Amino acid sequence: NSCVIRHITKTKSPAYKYGSHNTSHSCCQCVSPSYSSSHSAKYLATGASFRHLAFSFRMGRSTVASIIKHMIKILWNMLQPLHMPEPTTATFLNVSADFMKVWNFPNCIGAVDGKHVKVIAPQHSGSMYFNYKHYFSIVLQGVCDANYKLLVIDVGGYGKQSDGGTFQSSNLYKRIHQNKLNVPNPDSLPGTNVRAPYVFIADEAYPLMPNLLKPYNRRNRSLEHINFNQRLSRARKTIECTFGIMYAKWRLLSKAIETTEKTADDIIKAICILHNTILDREGFQRHLTLVTDAVPRDQMFELPRGRQLGEGQRVRDIFCNYVNFFPISYETA
């Protein structure tokens, strides 16, 4: 991560000027940017406790905690405009072209999934952050492109909501549902004159929507439905791989984050933006991609009803017909 640290310290941004922040972070002002970046990178990469880092760097625990808390905010504010800007219509069109080229899935503008990130029980939170797996967590919702880069994230869902609508209570759901993500207008599926909307793809735990596709139910499936599910699952695993890469590189995600819930949100956002920064600067090697076990699933989201569900089924059937008309070989794909 040394090259990324150099990139951070060389980036010209007002957010990196310690003097521009309030004086409560005066302890940070006597520490060089590169040193602060090193502290933060080691914390995120190793998951070492503040006490351990304080001993390693010969600084007080509260000083180390303050530096890291300050630095992770700077990382997001400075790097987000460069490495996770608001997706434009042109961005989504490029993403769709990549999904078709790499994963043979048409009109796809991102794969969606959620991840529970462990935290120490927040004070006075009761059971709000206690999830169905019996630990406290904050939920990260993410959308990635065909090459494991995060396009949009939503951090801060309560772990408790795993049974009742984490996705539908998120800003990400509202932006997808209300079409506020610069999604391109419907277009012809490649090689046909059949028009279809641009869609996000997800697994069976998500709601079926006109612009969010999920697999067909496992019961009463036809061969055509099975073929569609295989093609969708193949493309959707990009988001599982994205989380797998992040967990392998940033070991803090494998431990319970020992901060307030607000700082934990900032830490998760910092890791997401560092993930994108590394991909942008170093690229990726698909054959080295870490495919981890699937994220533990339950029925996380309530299903939509009525007109929206009916339109979602109609759109999914269009994609199902396309997939079966243009089959691929999974041995060579």
Automatic annotation (TrEMBL):
It is found in: Nucleus. GO terms for cellular component: nucleus. Its main location: nucleus. The keyword Metal-binding applies. Keywords: Hydrolase, Metal-binding, Nuclease, Nucleus. Pfam families: DDE_Tnp_4. Coiled coil: none annotated. Residues 112-276 form the DDE Tnp4 domain. One of its GO terms (molecular function) is metal ion binding. It comes from the Eukaryota. Its cofactor is a divalent metal cation. Belongs to the HARBI1 family. This is DDE Tnp4 domain-containing protein. It comes from Acanthoscelides obtectus (Bean weevil). The lineage of its organism: Eukaryota, Metazoa, Ecdysozoa, Arthropoda, Hexapoda.
